[in-house]
């Protein structure tokens, strides 16, 4: 019987429970399939701190080497460190991580040379077909000469590259609390921050893929409570929280208040436009109105896109954009092979704060102009039917426009909302923004009532 990969091969990556849904035997086939689909004669492989990651990544390397590809193992790394290695070495890459998922999960994020994404339409479906076939018929014939497997730690080179992209020379001393969530930030932050004038207060830097302190997903407010309290207790200038594979970064100001990723997107966009005047900036359709406003004010060209890193990266490449940001705290940089790196966004925040005398809350106030609901999930029996109910309620209202670039977006003069279906669960995701809190709450409550009515 061929392995059923329908539950673990997602739109952008592989992810599932180990060993129930996949194991080292399948990982070896994934390595062979990755080499076959990318036609690579050499690849780079890294992994996070999960208990299953060394074994799975090693099996993947064996499968790739069996088909003749040389494999560079970079060992423990963040996802953006793997992207750096792919770009710096000019090799296709594979990162073993399940990001913020619980300990029993693991996955693979794959890219072509130069960190170009591998998703369903760019090779992932072909990889899946080969793995399913080989799991039923047996592994492919090995190459006449197997590839060589070598080790190369890229952490120092990764840190040097990031630091070369941001001018930190005039930065004043700052006190920063960093919550690594027992994830890969505990591995990368000490090296990246080592040369900066920072008093670093580390939280949960011990690499532990069982996540003993809290889930490594800083977008969930429950997971930054410890960081917020520590920032206030330490009277720190700011706090940073990284997710499990440390490709996303969430920022907390000196009061312990979370700063929206949209405000960080606007701040970094302004800084990147100062370096690249007139550049294009990508933002997904549920970032704040403030993002395209700031981009235009700074002389740039905003481009709106669907949610999801493959769409952002495609638009980055198509438009030659200098920067892109998402509501989920993913930040993409042309100077980083169009890949996402929360660490580089964090360096921009440190540079922006460290070269002026005010507080972080004062700095970001001009980038945080509206009231947002955050993402609210509703379990529904029929995503399409419930969306149609909402559409009908709003489509004939005067002064309201609708579009369906990604789900349903309804826009009025003083507010907008987006309603998107989850691809993996029976959920509809709602985001609302308005010019004031009362309007945001009224629109939010009206839409939720329509979604949740019997």
UniProtKB/TrEMBL annotation:
Record GO terms (molecular function): intramolecular phosphotransferase activity; metal ion binding
Domain Alpha-D-phosphohexomutase alpha/beta/alpha: 7-133, 157-256, 264-370
CDD domains registered for this protein in UniProt: PMM_PGM
Keywords: Isomerase, Magnesium, Metal-binding, Phosphoprotein
Residues covered by the Alpha-D-phosphohexomutase C-terminal domain: 375-449
InterPro entries: A-D-PHexomutase_a/b/a-I (IPR005844), A-D-PHexomutase_a/b/a-I/II/III (IPR016055), A-D-PHexomutase_a/b/a-II (IPR005845), A-D-PHexomutase_a/b/a-III (IPR005846), A-D-PHexomutase_C (IPR005843), A-D-PHexomutase_C_sf (IPR036900), Alpha-D-phosphohexomutase_SF (IPR005841)
Names of required cofactors: Mg(2+)
Record GO biological process: carbohydrate metabolic process
Domain of life: Bacteria
Family membership noted in the UniProt record: Belongs to the phosphohexose mutase family.
Protein name: Phosphomannomutase/phosphoglucomutase
Species this protein is from: Streptomyces inusitatus
Gene field: manB
